[in-house]
TrEMBL record:
This is Uncharacterized protein.
Amino acid sequence: MGDYVLFQMWGPYRASLIEQHKFYVKEARNRLLSRFDDIEADSDKAADEWLEASGKWFDPDNDDPGSYYEAANDVGIQHYQMLRDMREQTRLSVVAGMYHQWDKALRDWLVREIQHWHRGDNVRAKVWGADFVQIIDLLESFGWALRAAPYFKSLDACRLVVNVYKHGEGASLQDLKQRYPEFLHDPFAWSAPHFDRTAGI
C-alpha cells in the first residue's frame, strides 16, 4: 500500500476524547465516589440514631443497657458493610462506564477510518461484532505493536475487570486470575495483624 495512511486521528478530535475522559473521571470522583469518603462516620451515626430511636422502649428495671449498645454496634457494622459494598459497586460502575465510553469511541473511529478506503456494506457490523482481542489483532496486523505498549496491560486489565463485574464467573474471571491477580481480593487471606486489629469488633 506504499505510504497510504489507513488510520489517522485528527488532533482536535483526539484532544476532545482526552478531555471527555478527564471530565468523566473528575466528575465521577466529585459527584459519586466522594460520597463514600467517610463511611465510618456514617456508620457511627446510623448506630447512634438506632440507639436514640430505641431508647424510648428501654426499661431500666428489666432491660440490660449492654444489649442495647451491642445491638446499636451491630447496626453500625451492618451499615458500614452495606456502604462498603455500595462503594465498590459504584466504583465498578464508574470504571465500566469509562471503559465502555472508550470502547465505543474506538469502534466509531475505526468504522469511519476504514470507510475511507473500504466501502463494503459490512464494515460497521464487523467492527461492532468483533471482540477486544480481534480489534487488537486487526490493529497489530497493520504494524502497531499495541500489546507491547506500556498502557496495554492497564487497558486489558480494565476490560477484564469490567467483564467480570458485568458477567460474574466465566472466561474473563479466569483470565483476570491468571494475568492480573492483583485485581482480585481474597476476603479470607487475612494476615494475623489484620485479624488481631479487628478481633474486638
